[in-house]
Amino acid sequence: MSHKTPLVLAAAIVLLACACTLDGSGAPTPTVTLLATFPPPAAPIATEPPPVTVVVTQVTEVAQIAVTQVVAVNAAPPAVITTTCAQPTGWLPYTVVAGDTLGVLAISTFTSVAELATANCVTNPDLIYVGQTLYIPRAPGTFLPTPIADGENLPTIDNILVEPAIVMTGVYTVTPGQVTVRAGSTSGAASVTFYTAPTGVESAPVVIGTDTNLADGATAVWQVSAAPQQANVWAIATGANGEQVTSEPILVQSNMP
User: Is residue 23 included in any domain, yes or no?
Assistant: First the structure.
């Protein structure tokens, strides 16, 4: 045998192995699957914030309101005070003038502040306006000094009180006998005179007393009768030159059923 025989046999074996692979009898050829590709996410689009609408509402400032006496001011009444109250039977329309207060109107019409406020749907009895229409039970009396809306060197008088008394919902209840009527404070006054008049009926005011020594405050002694009564009590401060200012009234009752 030639020395080339082993080489021929080796080559034949290699060819035979390749043929087995090519005819599918060997291991299957792996399949490569291409995955889908996606574009990168788009950058977020910047948006402008919606415009902000600023609504400016005009505010009317109420000026010239004293601490001790709130008066009607020369300002157009805002729409919110337009009343839809029905006119009480027998009551009269009244147009507010400068210097009016609900308390002064209560005194001059022989009614109470609470009754006037309720009848006119007034939620804040301390504010009424020039030109505002209110309903009152009768024409105002003329026994009070002309209201003074403003001015220099006017006397002032603080709210008044009665003692001893039981105070509930703004009403002072006293027992018959001697009580003291007192003004909280006064300034620029030469004298202070205290008055009373019943509510619900026209009657001339009664002078309780006058105090000219105001160094220790303004006071007067009131002898309350045993007869049932409900009355306004108020004071008028008089300045050195005769200027007069009326306090807000308080409602006092005694022996009421």
Answer: no
Residue-wise pLDDT tens digits, 72-92? 544 545 444 445 688 899 999
Q: Are 229 and 253 in contact (CB under 8 A)?
A: yes
Q: Residue 230's beta-bridge partner residues?
A: 253
Beta bridge partners of 168: 171
- CB of 110 within 8 A of CB of 140? no
Domain containing residue 169: CATH number: 2.60.40.10
| Enclosing domain of residue 194 | 156-254
Round to whole Å and give the CA distance between 32 and 34.
7
Contact 133, 94 (CB under 8 A): yes
pLDDT interval class at 99 (50, 70, 90): confident
- Give the DSSP per-residue string, 45-58: PP-PPPPPPPPP--
- The partner residues of 252 in beta bridges, in order of sequence, read 172, 231
